[in-house]
Amino acid sequence: RVRAFASSAAAQAAVGRVAVIGGGQMGAGIAQVAATHKHDVTLVDVSQEALERGKAYMAKSLGRVAKKKFPDDAQAQGRFVDEVLSRVALSTSPAEAAGSAGLVIEAVVENIKLKQDIFAGLAAAAPEGAILASNTSSLPIAKISEQLSAARKKRFIGLHFFNPVPQMKLVEVVRTDEADQQAVDDAVAFVKGIGKVPAVCKDTPGFIVNRLLLPYMMESIRLLERGVASARDIDAAMKLGAGYPMGPFELCDYVGLDTIKFIVDGWHKEGKGLAGDKQFAPSAKLDELVKNGHLGVKTGRGFYEY
Ligand code: NAI
Description:
CATH class of the largest domain: Alpha Beta
Strand order of the largest sheet: 3-2-1-4-5-6-7-8
CATH superfamily of the largest domain: NAD(P)-binding Rossmann-like Domain
Bound molecules: 1,4-dihydronicotinamide adenine dinucleotide
Shape: globular
Number of domains: 2
CATH architecture of the largest domain: 3-Layer(aba) Sandwich
Distance between the termini: 53 Å
Radius of gyration: 20 Å
CATH topology of the largest domain: Rossmann fold
Order of helices and strands: HEHEHHEHEHEHHEEHEHHHHH
Helix content: 40-55%
Number of helices: 14
């Protein structure tokens, strides 16, 4: 039935070279983690400048990992960072990167047309049998792959990592109705091989984590709007009363209020099974913050000031 991988070495052999398309915070994180676990990686972005940014992000993050790994040995830290980075090639050509890859993970900006166009090119260039995967948070996997051949769809899945990738253990492995079991098994083996924990789920809006988190975040905002309690008290209540590591407003600010608005507006408008659901109806408070550019930690102000 299942081709079981005896070790992560076997999983590496099965997947081989990994191409990561998009070197932003997610793509750079994914490339870093794959290279740390001995995969050869090609990281692709639109310009040399963007690639250098991705590389600097990886170097900084790897530096922190190295400090923990070799606390009193600066030389060993440097060797570790250099060794991992030596496995990451940089390229501005998705086709070239995909040509030798067993797994291609797309992590470009959240735009359906762009993703579809990128995969049309990748499908023409990647070896037959390569796994093609998207890291999208909010777009249907089947929609991203709808223009591809039946054979490509069989090995097209979602690999949804969490931010920050080097720290967050979970990867949702999203299977469409067209994906075959072998592709899911291969993806699960890859995820385990890079030290993460896979959760396999169907291709429905929000997969598992965001499908549960977004209603929670939106209801927290509505609690605030109804004047039930302050953001600070709601956060304290959920941390100390429910054991959550962050309160809902801290979490919203960390994720980015624009991202939250983008997701719930999309679901409310056309989410499969969710369109018109009042849980995801616009919130005046959220809309106002986003309109004023208060997007959370990244802009220095959201529900809190930073
Ligand atoms: P980002 O904006 O940090 O990075 C996107 C990168 O894609 C940029 O470096 C950009 O130059 C590059 N890019 C744009 N067009 C490209 C093209 N045609 N070819 C190659 N590269 C191109 O975005 P981020 O946050 O890394 O998100 C990327 C994807 O990951 C999105 O689909 C998002 O939904 C998903 N995601 C984001 C999470 C987050 O917390 N930020 C969490 C999980 C998934």
